[in-house]
Amino acid sequence: MPPTTPGLHHVTGIAGDPERNAEFYVKTLGLRFVKQTVNHDDKYTYHFYFGDGEGTPGTNITFFPWGDRGRQGKFGAGQTLTTTYSIHLECLDYWLDRLESQDIDVSGPTERFGQTVIEFDDPDGITLELVASTDAPHGHQWEASPIPASHQLQGFHSVTLAVSDIDPTAEVLTTGLGYEFEAEDGRYRYRSASGGPGSIIDLVETDQPRGQMGTGTIHHIAYKAEDTAEQEQWRDHLADQNLHVTEIIDRKYFHSIYFREPGGVLFEIATMGPGFTIDQNQDELGKELALPEWLEDERNEIESRLPSFDNPSIGIDSEN
Questions:
Q1: Which structural domains are found in the chain, ordered by start?
Q2: Cβ-proximal residues to 307 (8 Å cutoff; 6+ apart), any chain
Q3: Neighbouring residues of 315: CB distance < 8 A, sequence distance ≥ 6
Q4: What is the DSSP letter of 230?
Q5: Whether residue 263 has pLDDT greater than 70
C-alpha cells in the first residue's frame, strides 16, 4: 500500500533584500523567525524560516534572500500562484485593518468554496492569501508576536499551483501523492486523504508561458513524511509512477527528497523531524546564524560573504 501525506510541510520562496523579507514576515505578519541558516546548496545565501511559536511543520514559509545579485522572477506556468494561511473567522476584520494600516493593497474579501478569502503581496511580489473559517486550526502561539495570540496565523490552508494543463499534475496529486479530487469552483481542489490543516492543493490553468524562477517566486513546496523509512516508501512509489526522485538528502532539521511534477512545479517530501531545536533551544530559535556541522569549519568565511542583516527578532520580546 503506498504511503499517504497529511499535507504541506513548508513552502520555500525567493526573496530580495533579507532585512525587508524578515521585517515583513516577523513584524507585519507576526510569524516567528524560527531559523536563520544558509542554503545548503548555495552556502553564501541565507535560508530563513518563519512559522508558529515552535516552527511546527505545516506553518513554515522559508526563503532564500538573493539580495541584489538575484535575477527577478517572472510568473508563469509551472509555478505556485498563491500561498494561503488559515485564520479564524472572527479575525478577518483585524487583518483587513492591519494590512490597510501597513499600506498593503488587499484584494477581497471574496468567497471561494464557501470560505472568505483576502489576497495581498509580500514586498517581493509573492502572493499570499488568508482564508477565514470557523474550523481554522489552533497552532502554537508565539508569545512575543506583534499580533495578539487570538489573531495569529494558524498555519497553511493550501497552495494554488498554476499549470498549462491540469490533468498531468492532477494525476501526480492523486495517483502519486494520494490526494482526492474534492470540488471545482473556478479552480480544481484536491485534498490529502488524511485531511487536516494544510491538506489542500488547488490547481488553475494558465495560458502564460513557463515561468522564470527568481526573486518574487516560489521555489518549491514540500509535503510531510513521518520519517526516512516512509521516504524510502515514497521513493519506490513515485519511481513506479515514472517520476525522477532524488536520493534522501540531509537538511539538518529534516530529510528531503525532491521531484518535479509534469507541470513544472518542484515538489519536496520532508520528514517531521528532528526539528529546529536540534541545535538551538526553544527560546533562542532564529536569533543567531545556525550552520550544519559540515559547514561549521567554514563559519568565518560564510559570515564574511553573507550580506549584513539586522535581525528583527532581536529585542522583540521587550517591544511587546
A1: 8-319 (3.10.180.10)
A2: 18, 46, 65, 67
A3: none
A4: H
A5: yes
Phi, psi angles (nearest 5°) of residue 13: -120, 175
pTM of the model: 0.97
- The region, left, alpha or beta by phi > 0 then psi within -120 to 50, assigned to residue 252 is left
What nine digits make up the cell of 199? 491538506
* H/E run at residue 161: strand 156-163
d(CA 235, CA 304): 38
Q: Is the separation of the CB atoms in 154 and 51 below 8 Å?
A: no
How far apart (Å, rounded) are the C-alpha atoms in residues 130 and 138?
A: 15
The per-residue pLDDT for range 27-65, each reduced to its tens digit, is: 999 999 999 999 999 999 999 999 999 999 999 999 999
Confidence of residue 319 (pLDDT cuts 50, 70, 90): low
3-state SS, residue 170: helix
What share of the chain in percent tops pLDDT 90? 92
Q: What is the pLDDT of residue 286?
A: 97
Per the structure block, which three cell numbers stand in for 83? 500561498
| Residue 1 pLDDT exceeds 80 | no
DSSP state of 211: P
DSSP three-state, residue 90 = helix
